[in-house]
Design goal:
- There is one protein chain.
- With 115 residues, the protein is mainly α.
- It has 5 helices and no strands.
- It has one domain (2-114).
Length: 115
Amino acid sequence: MRGFVEELFNAFDSTLQRAKMTTSAFTGLGIGITLMLGEFALRLLPREWWWLAELGMGALFLVFFSICTSILTQMTALELSRFRPAHFREIRRGLLGSIVRLTIALGLVSGAISA
């Protein structure tokens, strides 16, 4: 049990790193811009085409969330395994595949739930 508590404290200590906060901030910025553009598109599109704007916003939300989740997960796993702060250049390898897999999985699950 003691080892789990130490790992939990190590993970907690690494949550406020600059790289992780920057990733979260850019994700929030991307989602905010998506919401703004989606609302603008809803005003321009006829009512029968609103589903297209909402579908696009949902797809962009999934992509932004997947990017953020993949980066933060890989950084945290690397930090816990090496007991030192991770750098973005260390997690770039395999990042695109992780983002694609997570986006597809989230899309399938959220599509099944909303259907």
